[in-house]
Amino acid sequence: MFSKTCKYAINAMIYVASLPIGNERASLKDISKAINSPEAFTAKILQALVRDDLLISVKGPHGGFSINGKASEIYLAQIVDSIDGNLLFTGCALGLKKCAEEHPCAVHYKFKAIREHLTGMLHSTNLTDMADRVNNGISFLKY
Amino acid sequence: MFSKTCKYAINAMIYVASLPIGNERASLKDISKAINSPEAFTAKILQALVRDDLLISVKGPHGGFSINGKASEIYLAQIVDSIDGNLLFTGCALGLKKCAEEHPCAVHYKFKAIREHLTGMLHSTNLTDMADRVNNGISFLKY
DNA sequence: ATAATTAAGGATATTTTTGTCCTTAATTTA
DNA sequence: TAAATTAAGGACAAAAATATCCTTAATTAT
Ligand code: SF4
Ligand code: SF4
Question: What are the protein's GO molecular function terms (chains A, B) (predicted)?
Fold first, then answer.
């Protein structure tokens, strides 16, 4: 479904979004500890998220990463798209090079609804939704 | 979603299931041509499907692969499970080691419905469904 | 200014996935 | 029986994904 890189990215974004007001910045070390991910690899992912304007980074003591803009306006779909690209949204379930309604793969008639369900969900779930649940102890970023 | 290996496997199974009555066997060469896949790699996949009792193979002239049993009783879910394992059905969307309803990941409340939708579809779509559409020119195994 | 802290980025390493090649085994046809 | 055909299987290769290490750059605190 999602690449491992993308899963780390999603959890990292949620963690940063879950930080308390007044202390909205977390270091690489904090983040990879919070989501239980390899630190150096996570660094690369965070760099990519900064490049893609989903995070803002600050160097130096008390530096770290914070959400770029409002968490309530960042949707899962943007993170997935940033890391994994749009293949999940637009690619063929069976890997056909070209997907046209007039030349559908063998699972298209069944798969279309699921893809729409999935992309609808990703486009309607924002970071605040998920961060709130983490803060309320309803959901978790690591096991 | 599915590994490339799994996509090849699905298309290959559908192709074999689409063969006309009385000639229900196809060679590796036929199959990889029909689904536009690398021959040697496809050989490995077909071997695995034979090992998993989804296909039957016969060596020698006019040998090849045929569906083991009734195509109408083989569901997409079996192929996916055989090749990719059950992680798509049971694994965590965000990669948490353990998934428990009491310790859900941050997307669980949104993801659960989609996973059920997907697994429901995979468990209710059989090879005959798809092979018929291919035979009727409604769907295609390659581009 | 200096030292300490933290992210950026390049190089490299490991693992997994995808893919190829070649030899052997089984079966059929001549 | 011999030759041809086709799958099985082992060894290897290439590419992609995942992961680590080290140096540099920026910022802050002393
Ligand atoms: S039609 Fe088939 S090929 Fe096109 S997107 Fe749907 S799943 Fe993919
Ligand atoms: S709860 Fe989260 S962790 Fe468990 S399965 Fe659902 S998605 Fe995965």
Answer: DNA-binding transcription factor activity
